[in-house]
Write a structure and sequence with these properties.
By secondary structure, this protein is α/β, with parallel strands linked by helices. It contains 15 helices and 14 strands. The longest helix has 32 residues. The structure holds ligand SAJ. The site of ligand SAJ has 20 residues, from helix 8.
């Protein structure tokens, strides 16, 4: 088989490229970012993820290559970012469009381009197919398209790459089966082949489902707070019902997926979305709710300044180093807006100071703060629970069991 060119070596592209290579496929990973390519060529990984160093070693042994330049070949997987446009909530497809254009410049006749980036339903029809025409290629003959959305979760990417089932969308069945055969080189899960639009929709729907269910848990937390009911006990009781599975409330929904993808549906179907939009609002308002409770706890305990308050956790969830859309960053944005200065910040997963008030010294952080707000449930805080025992703790993740005074969401 010919070399597989993976275009975009971020959180999804890199592990995917390594996985193909580790399983015997000849792979070239391409990225526009010179520094990133240089770092990979020097054997240095660009982010932390369980099992990634071992996978990297295996892929390098099998001859994976990294370059800023694309290769002239007949199979490509595009894994570039797809943010949304803040003003109208529609997809920002420019990175996908550029990647497709770059591929069309070099690909051989009959090449398959599989887009793995999350895209809103209709993106391939609206944005990608016209480019193929613009380049004078005939779709289905000179170039073939597929959509192969990813499903892996940061923190458990390698396991999920191998074991999750996947969806491949292609309007030509033969192409769908061909792309399926690529992924079969490492994927032990079912691989379902469908059309492009259904595949596009399935990905966005999966993340929207989770957003809605987290919003439900967050709304319950607010209701329980007013009624003085322990929301975690309530959820664990309700979950004993065989058909109920409520998720956990938290300080908000971060990450590049769940807090982003539902907006694609809002942007494209504004007259139809109700539950989806309401859930987005509930989750987006959680940082405000955390601040409101935080201020209440400070007042109750006579804490007058943020200088003696610490936020534990900067990343969007536990045991990853990813800060994208993180609830803590959203809380800090609100502080900045109201000139609320002086809060202390610590995150064991973020080894470079990214925000004002951040320290790399956990002991110093603990010493300085009378009150700690736990915003991310890293293993580190569970292992260092003892250091919280003399503190006022506001635990938004329900992991702390040992504090002078303990408040939950
Ligand atoms: N969260 C809660 N309560 C919960 C679960 C999560 O507040 O009960 C919060 C997390 O703390 C985090 C956010 O939600 O801030 C999202 O975290 P996550 O672990 O649920 O998901 P992601 O964003 O890391 O990854 C998701 C996954 N999608 C689904 O589970 C449907 C993953 O499988 C996708 O591949 C990924 O999005 C993606 O790239 O689309």
């Amino acid at each position: 088989m010919n070399t597989l060119n993976i275009v975009g070596l971020g959180y999804i592209g890199l592990p995917t490229a390594l996985m193909f290579a580790a399983n015997g496929i000849e792979v070239l990973g391409t990225d526009l970012n010179k520094e990133l390519v240089k770092s990979l060529n020097e054997g240095k990984l660009t982010f932390e993820e369980k099992g990634l160093p071992e996978l990297f070693d295996k892929a390098v042994k099998n001859g994976i290559k990294f370059s800023e330049e694309l290769l002239s070949t007949n199979r490509y997987i595009i894994t570039v970012p797809t943010p949304y446009i803040k003003e109208n909530k529609k997809i920002e497809a420019k990175y996908v469009i550029n990647a497709v254009k770059n591929v069309l410049e070099v690909c051989v006749k009959g090449a398959i381009i599989a887009i793995e980036s999350t895209i809103s339903p209709g993106t391939i029809d609206k944005f990608v197919k016209p480019i193929i025409k613009e380049y004078g290629y005939e779709l289905g003959k000179d170039v073939h398209l597929a959509h192969a959305p990813e499903r892996i979760i940061p923190g458990n990417m390698i396991y999920e790459l191998e074991n999750n089932s996947r969806t491949i969308g292609a309007d030509e069945r033969k192409v769908g089966e061909e792309v399926k055969s690529w992924y079969k080189s490492f994927c032990k899960g079912d691989i379902v082949v469908t059309d492009i639009k259904t595949a596009e929709m399935s990905k966005v729907v999966e993340n929207t489902y989770r957003d809605i269910n987290i919003a439900f848990a967050n709304e319950l937390a607010k209701i329980c707070n007013r009624e003085n009911i322990n929301v975690y006990e309530l959820i664990s009781i309700a979950n004993k019902h065989p058909r109920v599975n409520i998720l956990n409330p938290g300080p908000g929904v971060g990450g590049h997926c769940i807090s982003v993808d539902p907006w694609f549906l809002v942007g494209d179907y504004p007259d139809l979305v109700n539950v989806i939009l309401a859930s987005r609002h509930v989750n987006d308002e959680m940082p405000d709710y955390v601040i409101e409770k935080m201020v209440g706890i400070m007042n109750e305990n006579g804490i007058k300044s943020l200088n003696s308050v610490g936020l534990y956790g900067l990343t969007y969830k536990e045991d990853v180093d990813d800060l994208r859309e993180s609830p803590t960053l959203q809380i800090l944005e609100r502080f900045e807006k109201y000139f609320a200065k002086g809060v202390n910040i610590y995150d064991p997963m973020v080894s470079e100071n990214k925000v004002d008030g951040q320290t790399q010294n956990f002991d110093e952080f603990i010493q300085k703060c009378d009150m700690i707000v736990v915003l991310t449930a890293h293993k580190h805080i569970i292992e260092n629970m003892d250091s919280l025992k003399d503190k006022i703790v506001f635990d938004t993740r329900n992991v702390v069991n040992n504090a002078k005074k303990l408040y939950k969401l």
